[in-house]
Amino acid sequence: MAWVYLTIAGLFEIVWAYSMKQSEGFTRPGATAITIGAMIVSFALLSFSMKSLPLGTAYMIWTGIGAVGAFLVGIFVLGEQANAMRIGAAILIVSGLLLMKLSSPA
Predict the structure, then answer these.
(1) What pLDDT does residue 104 have?
(2) At what angle do helices 29-49 and 55-76 cross, to 10 degrees?
(3) What is the Cβ-side half-sphere exposure of residue 23, based on CA atoms within 13 angstroms?
(4) Among 68, 72, 49, which residue's Cα sits nearest to residue 59?
(5) What is the 3 state secondary structure string of the chain?
(6) Are residues 15 and 34 in contact, defined by beta-carbon separation less than 8 angstroms?
(7) What pLDDT score was predicted for residue 100?
(8) Where are the domains of the chain?
(9) Percent of the chain with pLDDT over 90
(10) Longest distance between any two alpha carbons in the chain, whole Å
(11) What per-residue string of b and e applies to 41-54 under the rule 16 or more CB within 10 Å gives b?
């Protein structure tokens, strides 16, 4: 169950990163509220997953899901640039996440 919590926590990290961008420096109340709510859920689920997962594994997977997810949202939703170097960097992050998962218990 810890991996499920961790995956969902990572997805909420993507939500809060996107909504933070949409909040325009916390000047838009709706987007600001979504940001704060998603942060709380993300941190809570990360905390639950850390009951049985090692700190380094949980934190790396959580931030990796958020980083790659925010990168993809930036490209597909916000129209940000997608060049070979940026895509290569994202592939390296995903590779690291897979290696971390394969090397971790449970």
Answers:
(1) 72
(2) 150
(3) 18
(4) 49
(5) CHHHHHHHHHHHHHHHHHHHHHCCCCCCHHHHHHHHHHHHHHHHHHHHHCCCCCHHHHHHHHHHHHHHHHHHHHHHCCCCCCCHHHHHHHHHHHHHHHHHHHHCCC
(6) yes
(7) 84
(8) 2-103
(9) 88
(10) 43
(11) bbeebbebbbeebe
Nearest to 64 by CA among 9, 23, 26, 2: 9
Structure-token pair, residue 82: 């997608």
Spatial CA neighbour of 18 closest among 6, 35, 30: 35
Would you mind telling me the total number of residues written for the chain in this entry?
Answer: 106
pLDDT averages per 10-residue partition of the chain, 106 residues: 96 98 98 98 98 92 95 97 95 91 75
What is this structure's pTM? 0.88
